[in-house]
Amino acid sequence: MVINRTGTTTENQIIQLVSWILDIPSSYINPYTDFIDDLYLDNMERELLIARLERSLGILLSPEEVASIDTIQDISRCFSQHAAA
């Protein structure tokens, strides 16, 4: 699980998980990394990645939240909000 002691998901933890899922070095990923422009994912791959992260964290995002996610920072913010609730 990628939730820290305070109940929030950190960007570094998300970066490590995305790195593992996509099998790319974590040094290529930062909070501002865009899934489409920087990681060259298409919309379907982006949604599949988000679904995998949701399953890994036990958090379910709304379709509107998923549509608003473009970067590591976006997904970290969404997961942190859900973990805090």
Q: What report would you give on this structure?
A:
The two termini are 17 Å apart. The chain has helices spanning 11-22, 43-57, 63-67, 72-84. It has one domain (11-84): ACP-like (Non-ribosomal Peptide Synthetase Peptidyl Carrier Protein, Chain A, Orthogonal Bundle), CATH 1.10.1200. It is 53% helix and 0% strand. With 85 residues, it is an all-alpha fold. It is built from four helices and no strands.
* CATH fold topology: Non-ribosomal Peptide Synthetase Peptidyl Carrier Protein, Chain A
Please give the alpha-carbon distance between the first and last residues.
17 Å
State the helix count: 4
Give the class from helix and strand content and strand pairing: mainly alpha
How much helicity do the residues have? Answer: 40-55%
Number of strands: 0
Topology:
Layout: H1 11-22, H2 43-57, H3 63-67, H4 72-84
Short synopsis of the structure:
The chain has 85 residues and is mainly alpha-helical. 53% of the residues lie in helices and 0% in strands.
Keywords:
single chain; 85 residues; mainly alpha; Non-ribosomal Peptide Synthetase Peptidyl Carrier Protein, Chain A; disordered N terminus
